[in-house]
Structure formats: C-alpha cells, structure tokens
Amino acid sequence: MTQRPNILFMIADDHRHSAIGAFGNPTVQTPVLDQLAADGVSFSHTHILGGWNGAVCVTSRAALMTGVNPLAATAAKDGPLAQTIPSHLALMPETFRQNGYRTFFSGKWHNDKAAFARCWAQGDTLFFGGMSDHDKVPLRPFDPSGIYPEDAVHIGKGFSTEMFSDSAIRFLHHYDDDAPFFAYVAFTSPHDPRTPPPPYDHMYRADAIPLTPNFLPEHPFDNGELHVRDEMLAGFPRQPAEVQQHLADYYGMISHMDFQIGRILTALAESGHADNTIVVYVADHGIAIGQHGLFGKQNVYDHSIRVPLILRGPGLPTGQRMDALNYSFDLFPTLCELTDIARPDTVESQSLLPLVHGEPGRPSLFACYRDMQCTVTTGDWKLIRNARVPNRQGELVGTDRWQLFNLQDDPWETNDLIDNPAHQTQKANLETQLASWREQLRH
Questions:
Q1: What span, in angstroms and rounded, lies between the C-alpha atoms of 13 and 285?
Q2: pLDDT tens for each residue of 265-286
Q3: CB of 136 closer than 8 Å to CB of 215
Q4: Is the peptide bond before 210 cis (omega within 30 degrees of 0)?
Q5: Domains observed in the chain
Q6: What is the pLDDT of residues 185-235, one digit of tens each?
Q7: Where does residue 195 rank: exposed (0-12), middle (13-18), buried (19+ CB within 10 A)?
Q8: What is the dihedral of CA 158, 159, 164, 165, to 10 degrees?
Q9: 344: cis peptide before it, omega within 30°?
C-alpha cells in the first residue's frame, strides 16, 4: 500500500469557536486559519464535554488523547478522567506510534508524564503545566527515559507561540524518515496572561471592538463559580471599556498565533510533505471574556464549550462547512479512519467522516461543568440545569435553576424561555434527553 498520510495536529488554549474570521467574526484577523478552512473542511458545532474542575483543559485534553468520554464513571475505572490518564486507555499518538508513525511533540502538556512518555518518540520545547507568562515559560528538553526530573527545567528565551512554532518548523525542515510523522503542536495562546508581542499588542483598538450581544455587567444569578480565578481577571460589575481591552489583547494573541501557524504551514510545504499531510486545528475549550457577565470557561454556555475545528488533507473535501453536532474527542477515530489504522477498543467517540459524507450526526450533545451545571443541546434548542452544590469548603453555592434557549433564533443565549408556556413541550423533551445522557454517564 502507499504510505499513510502524515498528521500535523495543532491545538490552541482558550480559543472560542466565534473568534475566527472564517467562522463569522468580522473583527479578528485570521487569514491563515481562514485559508485553511477554505482549503479543507470546517466544523461549526464542535463541542467539548466540559470539565471536572476549574482547569477545564485537563479534562478536554484527556478526552482528546483517549477518545473516551471523560465524565463517565468508567473512564478511569474509579471516577471521571482527570490529569492522570489510566494506563488501560489507548492514547491517540501512542496508537499512531505503534503503527509505524514517528511522533513529535512541542508545546503544552497538561496531563501526566507517564502518558506523555507513551505517546512521543521525539520532542522539543516542552511545557508541562497549565499556564505561565508567555515570555517566561518553564521548558524541558525531551527525555527519552520519560523521567523528566525537575532540575532539567529552564526558562525559555522567547515568546511561547514562537518557540513552539520554531520547534515544529525545525522538525519539518529536517524530517527525512521513510515513516510517516505525527507532529503535535500545543500552543498556550490565546490563554491569559493575554500579552501579545509587538506589533500585535497594538493591532486592535479596544474602543473599536464591538461587544457581543450577550455582554452583561454581571451574570444574572450565582452559577457556583463566580469567584474562580478566571472570573477575577476583570472587575465587578464588568465595564465595557475593560472588556474591550481584554478582547483587543485576546484578538492580538489569536492573530499572532495565526501568523505562526502560517510559518508552520509554509515549512510543511517547503518540506515537500504538504500534499500527503492531514492538518488539524482545534482548541481545548472556549472562554467568555464578558459574555453573560462571565470571564472564564467554567460554564456551559456556547462560548465556553464550543471550539473551532478545521481539517485539511488527503481524503477530505475542500471548502466544506459542516454544521452537524460533534465533539472534539471525535478526532481520535477520525484520524484512525483517514489513515487506515484500527481504532483501539477503548475508544468511545465517533468518526467525523460520516458527517463529511452527508450522514446525520448525533441528535444531541451533553456537557457539564463539575456537578453544578449540565446541558443538552440539539443544535436548535438548548437546556441548562444549574444546581446548588457544596464548594471546596463545603459551603453551598450556585442556584437551582433551569434555562432554555432557542439557538436557532437566539444563538447568543440571551432570551431564557424556561417559563414560556409555548415551549414547555420542548423543555420536557430536552429534560428527557438530559436524563438519558446522565444515565449513560453512570455506566
């Protein structure tokens, strides 16, 4: 058979689905990602399953690596999937490595070192952690032993996005192996601290950035996490000018990352491997930054649980947009199918290729944040269940409250229809689906 296609997998941190030009945002400038979408297939309704603590990316990335529903009680045999990925679960890069791929990693790894060692045969500019200043990243060299002692950490010289991109570019320029490669670049951008380097720090005028229709000075009720770290990045109540400055910096980070992605794709083309490489762009989760009076991702509104997803390469159409419901952790079986690799038995997610070929997707999707917020959506309608639960100190927080949104007419989730008599049948149907999803997660 001919050589299997290479894979270039790029993942961002905190990049919400609406912050790309090709996805309908007229303000943010993302020409590289826009072209990638034009040359491939983009997915407008990619969701994450949520998170089990404030570091939502831990859960999201574990799901991405394993293709396992991270909230199911069976995921780790003894509870929800967390930072340490159990050894009985097959990992995506590990699976490709076992099937003859040369695996390479650069950037952020927010799961355990043992799982990392199973995945990667090569790496450069490694960051083990959740966040850091972008110009003071604690980096590690690749350690073939998989031990990664603490005394090997050094502070990187440069901006995170540029350092991670440089490593990927070096790998592509020097790759001359006969085996296909699986190169994974995990950016820390556009996660805070949102400090884009020049000239991107002045690329956007804060006072010229429009606020989203769902901007609120305060969230209308206690959702249980109004004082988590992310929510403390701006004052209360939210001031329009402060939110606009955060957005200017956020967009600056994204535009800078977009440029660096362009450098990587140029290196891919120069390497001669572009025609036989599947390119993936996705994010670990979204973020609010002023929407609904919130700033973080510790919620189940669309701005936080929907992410951009773009695929380009052999076996994929060009210029196609898919609106069917899907999860980011569907990427594991998708890439297996595109490369003719048997998907491991532990993988629970579904390939995206049937959607590309016109088949219907899931009728609904579930997501939750801890045990205090959960949601089910059909794409047109969305139901949210908020609960009053004990916090880490044992104090009751949150509000017992339901919310119902018609996403077809109200994509910004501003008009709560939960008490509207005309929509009680819709509410009851979604309650049934939510209960079904929660029952599935108990098994």
A1: 7
A2: 999 999 999 999 999 999 999 9
A3: no
A4: no
A5: 6-363 (3.40.720.10)
A6: 999 999 999 999 999 999 999 999 999 999 999 999 999 999 999 999 999
A7: middle
A8: -100
A9: no
